[in-house]
Design a protein that fits this description.
Elements (H helix, E strand, L loop, with lengths): L1 E2 L1 H24 L3 H15 L6 E2 L5 H14 L6 H9 L8 H21 L34 E2 H21 L7 H7 L6 H7 L1 H12 L6 E4 L1 H14 L2 H14 L7 E4 L2 E2 L5 E2 L2 E2 L2 H7 L5 H12 L7 E2 L3 E2 L2 E2 L5 H9 L7 E3 H12 L7 H17 L6 E7 L2 E6 L8 H4 L1 H9 L5
Antiparallel strand pairs: 1-2, 3-6, 4-5, 6-7, 8-11, 9-10, 12-13, 13-14
Length: 433
């Protein structure tokens, strides 16, 4: 997690403002020593408004690095000499980049080993504890309510871990061509008895771990029959304020009653006991983006919740796909997302929209009319919002209409919305028919 460039200035300006406000309060209260201290801190912040802020609470990045490294090392446009130079570089003073990469791969292997050896839900990669009863939301949905209080995130365990392990296998396969033998790797791994060392000595054990982790998605799978869908949506709508309740009931009436269509989706997360927390979510977009070779039928199943109208699924006409739908979860989860809406069912995230568009655009060559229709339907809704260049956006119910609005803390200088330029380019290259 970081604040860079304009975002760093924006966040540091908030800190400066709070320090100056505290200075005036302390001065008025006659606490001069406290006031002087706050003023000195404020001057320090003002002198470095552009200073980058970083923290290392996230765990998703631990699995992303091997994916990036594997793509670099298998990139045919990069010469073997350049790759060798990159890996041997030790100018940062912490050992060679190869040694640092192996340290990261070792961490991934260690964290994923328990489930590989005993594939139970409670052996999945866990968020760290925030306190005695809560888990830190330590992936991209980093608000308090982001993972609905879950301990085991679907995006980490069902998407990033399998991809990271495959990437480690790819890296181990390509290094010998660069003159780095398994024996050399073994000598560079700090823990000779650890999981990565075992994988280097026996690649088949890594293959078995990958196969086991490919099944992790089953722990998150939720299927609800039509009667259950009706019951849970009715309860959620009854809980909403009257104007919203009327609006969403009207939306449901326009789309017709729920009859024979069940809904299947991967839960946002699992609770501490390994039970799914039934929140429909946009995280399958990451899987579509990372795995362009997925079977079309698999992709259609992943995309279906994006197309089903809210409050059944995620789709909202004139707005886009909501980042989450908690209608099938407990009232406790509803209240949690109501209090902390940043990653909840009132928000569309540009990050997720962009991942979905790129994932679907990569499949244009598959010739599936259903996928083309899905892409264009979601694209039309997002563009109609007029907020598609934002980091995230929300809505208000005014009278009988839904009105797209900026989310209160959204930014024009975050990475997620600047990537929209690249997405626009990709979409512009698609066939117009």
């Amino acid at each position: 997690e970081e604040a860079l460039g304009g975002q760093a200035i924006r966040e540091n300006a908030v800190v400066y403002d709070s320090l100056v406000t505290g200075y005036f309060r302390a001065a008025r209260a006659g606490r001069q020593q406290k006031a002087d201290s706050l003023l000195e801190q404020a001057r320090g912040v003002l002198g470095e408004l552009q200073k980058t802020r970083e923290n290392y609470h996230m765990i998703d990045d631990e699995f992303q690095l091997p994916v990036l490294a594997a793509r670099y090392l298998t990139d045919s446009t990069v010469s073997p000499d350049r790759k060798r130079t990159f890996l041997s570089d030790s100018s940062e003073g912490r050992g060679s980049r190869l040694a640092l990469l192996l340290r990261e791969m070792s961490l991934v292997a260690t964290w994923t080993r328990p489930y590989a050896e005993d594939p139970r839900a409670t052996k999945l990669v866990s968020f760290p504890k925030r306190d005695a009863t809560h888990w830190r939301s330590a992936s991209w949905r980093d608000s308090d309510a982001g993972y609905a209080g879950g301990r085991f995130a679907m995006d980490i365990n069902a998407i990033w871990v399998p991809k990271a392990l495959r990437s480690i296998d790819t890296i181990m396969g390509v290094l010998p061509a660069l003159g780095i033998t398994p024996a050399m790797l073994d000598s560079l791994i700090a823990n000779r008895n650890g999981a990565l060392a075992a994988y280097v000595r026996d690649r088949s054990s890594l293959s078995r771990a990958i196969q086991t982790w490919d099944g992790a998605r089953r722990h998150f799978q939720v299927s609800l029959a039509p009667a259950e869908i009706r019951r849970r949506i009715a309860a959620k709508l009854a809980w909403l304020p009257a104007p919203e309740r009327r609006y969403w009931r009207q939306v449901m009436a326009e789309h017709g009653p729920i009859r024979d269509s069940s809904i299947t989706f991967p839960a946002l997360s699992l609770d501490a006991a390994g039970r799914p927390i039934r929140v429909v979510n946009t995280d399958p977009a990451t899987r579509l983006f990372l795995n362009p070779d997925l079977n079309v039928d698999v992709v259609l199943k992943d995309v279906l919740p994006f197309l089903r109208p809210y409050p059944e699924g995620l789709f909202v006409g004139g707005l886009g796909p909501l980042v989450a739908n908690d209608a099938y979860a407990s009232r406790q989860i509803w209240e949690r997302f109501q209090a902390d809406q940043y990653h909840g069912p009132r928000v569309v995230w540009g990050r997720e929209v962009n991942l979905l568009f790129l994932g679907l655009a990569n499949r244009e060559s598959a010739g599936s009319e259903e996928l083309k229709e899905a892409l264009h339907r979601i694209l039309a809704a997002v563009n109609e919002s007029g907020l598609q260049h934002n980091e995230l956006w929300s809505y208000e119910i005014r009278g009988e209409k839904l009105v797209p609005v900026r989310y209160g803390t959204s930014s024009d200088v975050q990475l997620w919305n600047t990537t929209h330029l690249a997405v626009d380019f990709v979409l512009s290259q698609l066939p117009k028919n």
